[in-house]
Amino acid sequence: MATYSYAQGTQSFETRQTDMTGMQRMASKMWAPWIVMGLMMVLIAFIIGLVLQDRVGFWFSFPKAERDAAVAGTDIVSAKAFIEATKVWLPAFKFLGLGMMLGGITFLLATILGTLRPSGAAVQRALGADVKLYKPAIANVFPVLMMMVMIAALVIGIVMGVQANDLYSNSIATIDSAPSGSELLAQLGRINAVTAWLAPFKFVGMALLFSGIATALVTIIYVLRWQSRRVLELVGQ
Amino acid sequence: MNGEIDLKGSDSQSRVGLAILLIMLGLITEMVALGIGSYLGVLNGEYWSETKAARDSAAAGSDLLSTGGTIVAVATWLEPLKFVGVAFFFAGIAFALSGIVPRVQARAQAMATAIEQHNAPHTK
């Protein structure tokens, strides 16, 4: 148990980390790594974007006729496969990075709440009163659960990326001439279908993270109001 | 002194109410966007499962051409709609942050009252 205290005259003021909830203790340790990891993911996404630019430049350095006629296994087809696969999974990866940063902010707000809680307990102890701690029900919303949507989006993005890589490893001519009901066309349909709903799905993940931030802010308001009432209650006002 | 402290925090409460309303609007907007995106996903699945020859030679007024048009047309406003949802969230967060200010002020007033009460017997 970490205890911070200072003495002033005959009065002592003490905040105890044990007055924090388990989630608040974890949040106080996790916010910095989450923000750093999120930032790194966004930077990595930017670097991959630069690599993608190189591949796109390579792809367009050939005339359309040559690109369409390129057979499977050639550099042109490999470049196309890389471009299409990356276009599917990279946005989900970027969003997960942003999500981690938003999660870090939520953790930081939980840390502020975790600081308010032992501080309130310390004031009550200093006044010789029974320590009453307040935890609004709204504070139970857990940011890690909110991250699950973003993680799911990345996993789906990677699976679709692999599919896009498989599909575009075929020559354009083969894809364009794929007969109705073939596996190639089914793959093309699947990739386009999933990509269409994956974008709003990522925004739902972001929405949940924003809700977590707003929830933490509202909890801070409730806790501040409760602490003001408690102080006045203790001095008989 | 207590009479001067706005413990009920009606101003703060209205901001919290507005923040919650905006957050709910943001969530609803994103859910609606997901619903439309899912529908678009089904249309995409149908459209791209057709052969390229069929897609390219689709006659005016045909279901296939209409599906292709819907996919492109809906995507143009679906993207901004998702950002409208995000804007609701930012507005909600701003209101929630602004609601903290009066609570911090009321807390300081409550502490001042408590200290006054605590010091009162010693000053007599």
Structure, explained:
The complex is a heterodimer of chains A (237) and B (124). With 237 residues, chain A is mostly helical. Chain A has one domain. Chain A has helices at 22-59, 64-69, 75-126, 143-168, 172-176, 183-234, and strands at residues 3-8, 11-16. Chain A has a two-stranded antiparallel sheet with strand order 1-2. Chain A is elongated, with a radius of gyration of 27 Å. The model of chain A is unreliable at 1-13 (pLDDT under 50). Chain B has one domain. Helices cover 85% and strands 0% of the residues of chain B. In chain B, helix 1 (10-48) packs antiparallel against helix 3 (63-123). The interface between A and B is large, with 46 and 60 residues.
- How does the major sheet of chain B shape up? none
Helix/sheet category of chain B: mainly alpha
Number of domains of chain A: 1
Number of helices of chain A: 6
Estimated radius of gyration of chain A: 27 Å
How many strands of chain B?
0
Query: Cα distance, first to last residue of chain B?
Result: 19 Å
The chain pair with the largest interface is:
A-B, 46 and 60 residues
What can be said about the biggest beta sheet of chain A? 2 strands, antiparallel
Query: Strand percentage of chain A, roughly?
Result: 5-15%
The total domain count of chain B is 1
| H/E element order of chain B | HHH
Structural class of chain A: mainly alpha
**Backbone shape of chain A:** elongated
Number of strands of chain A: 2
Mean pLDDT of chain B: 85
Low-pLDDT runs of 5+ residues of chain A are: 1-13
